[in-house]
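Aim 2, interim progress. The first record below pairs a target sequence with its structure tokens.
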Amino acid sequence: MIFLGLLVAAAAIGVGVGVLLDNAADAQLTFLGQAVPGVTSMWHVFLAGAVVAVVFMGGMIVTMLGVGRAVRVRRELRDLRDEHEESVTTLEMEKQHLQRELARARQQAPAPAQAHMAAPQPGGPGSKVSSSRFFDPSS
């Protein structure tokens, strides 16, 4: 969009300079050595200049809109990057806090967890119940 605006503005400047340098007569408009048809009086020349100025301003407006959009997008990306860094930092702090709490909880209650793990399971090798009680091969 910026390039398009600059291209239109440059074309308008080129046309204006070409008309300015090629005009020798008061009521005839020439561009690149050729007479522009339909231009027979001074107000036609003035109107052609006004059209060139409007095209130039249009090109500059398009350029400024493109620059404003680029600045806005860059600002939004920077804000999103900052927000992402803040959320990552917050998550890392929360992770460290939860790791400390977990370590503290493991230090306070190690005995119940070990007693639960050491208890013999029913039907296991340390139990007195035979597995044949639950399965009768004769049936």
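The second target in this work package is listed in the same format:
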Amino acid sequence: MSLERVFDRVPDPASFTLPEYSLPRGDPVMPIAVTRAELSAVLDLYETFQAVDPTGLDANPLFAATREYVERTFGTPQYRPDEKLHDDVEAMLTTFSNDLGSRSMAVVDATPAHHRTLYLFLIACRSYHATPHVRFDPDPDAVETLYDLYRRVTDQDVYLKNPTSVLE
């Protein structure tokens, strides 16, 4: 499937809000099946995503020289607007990998934070791909795999993990 067709299926952030998962007395989770091949595909996509400069500074020598001058003159560090997303995706992939263990397939507990991370990762991939000055051409199969994981989390019912009783 083409990237445009996959990205068209992702809800538009202007009209979409993530559901509220505040459930009393427990941790809400959405258990989904994940295979090692799917996790590897998403990890490869993440590594491609992580290598992109969303500001386009790497592609434009004038911007790069200006940034370097400002950093040297004013001591400001280089800032990437997607650093928090990088941390969240890395944490999610680590959690899924730990739940998967050495098995080729397992059920992992996706949390509301994972749901948000999957959505933001998809939206960021779409934005990077659509931006002319950012060179991001991910593998369409990897993006489709990411969308499939997002869709499974979205379609799954919410369960309580470690529920507490009324007496606690």
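The chain has one domain: 3-15+27-54+82-161. This observation will shape the mutagenesis plan for the next reporting period.
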